[in-house]
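Below is how a single chain appears once it has passed through the pipeline. First comes the sequence as given, then the structure the pipeline wrote out for it. We keep one example in the README because the format questions we get most often are answered faster by looking than by reading.
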Amino acid sequence: MTGRRCGVAVGLAVVLWFAGSGRAAGAAGSSRSPASEPVALSRVAGPEGWPDLTEAFEGRDGGLQEALERSLAWFDDPRSGAAYPFPSPTVTHEQARAGVAAFRELLRSSGSAGEFRARVGREFDLYASVGSDGRGTVLFTGYYAPIFRASKTPTTAFRYPLYGRPPDLVSDEGKEEGLGRRVGGAIVPYPARAEIERDPAALGLTGREIAWLDSRLDAFLVEVQGSARLEMTDGGPPVHVGYAGSNGRPYTSIGRLLVADGKIEKERLTLPAIRAYFQDHPEDLDGYVRRNDRYIFFRTQVPGDWPVGSLGVAVTPMRTLATDKSIFPLGGVVLVQTSLATAEGGSRPFAQFLLDQDTGGAIRAPGRADLYLGIGEPAGEVAGRQAHRGRLFYFILKPERVADWIGRSEASGGGG
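Resulting structure:
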């Protein structure tokens, strides 16, 4: 998903149309019911059916190594076991963890793309997303971590709050998505946005403000993005915020509403167009924002660990992918083949290895995935333009190779 302000008039067009609302962060995993989830992956016949891995191998860098290490750290957290076994194809937790370690070693020790391809073919099965059409077509959008100006205290200018998670918000164990509000011994639906904004004190939110922004629209865009770095007006250190839960209400896309109401033509739906509309019609902003019942709560995060994805580990620019975690396995290595937007408005081919480490409100079904593009204005310019179709592949360690790679890891002291 995308989001940005600070002078760059691009960003949220994709999110505001496709209906994201806050990137779920910090959940270690979720239990699965094989009978209830659609099959999203199809095995690729090899070797003739495999895509070319040359560009991805030659593009390996420190960012890929960092993302691999972060996935391994997540797998070493006992809470990650809740995400496995994955039902289709059947993947165990130890198989998934060993697969990341094996892939890392093959990248490190292969002398050429040809050698790497041969070794990967012996160790891994390859699965492709069935995509939106059953033929593997996946729409790749982009998201990033925006930067905003904010105040620690409300002023006449800075009067739009970001709230911390309320103590009475109830979630499933291991997750942060709100199920409701605890009132006495009962759990009742958490109020929708309009009620929250009308009387936050009645819900115990007064005093839970993390910071205040000077733009109603920007505060809403932080919710859509799910994270932000806040540059404080008092000159103090930046405050980094991330997703801490929602009120559990459905999301309504502002962009879709504006198009449906005839305010902006669908072909012209960009963040500049949205900002321009509300600049010309400020009296409409409250009404449109409040038609989205969903409300996002935040927590502060340690700068070195920010921004955090849904695995609870930091995401890596150009190496973290967000997908629908109800249908794709968490934490593993993927190959993305698509086009990547440029800040100038063009695009270039993109075929790289990434780690499936995040999710988002707009990322649903096999035909959607989101590339994490980085922090600040340059990443925001690209994210605002990123909407290209392509293919998505998952590398699954062959079951008969799991014991060998676990043995190698134990022999090396757990690091491999």
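The chain has two domains: 13-28+146-305, 59-142+319-411.

See the next section for the split statistics.
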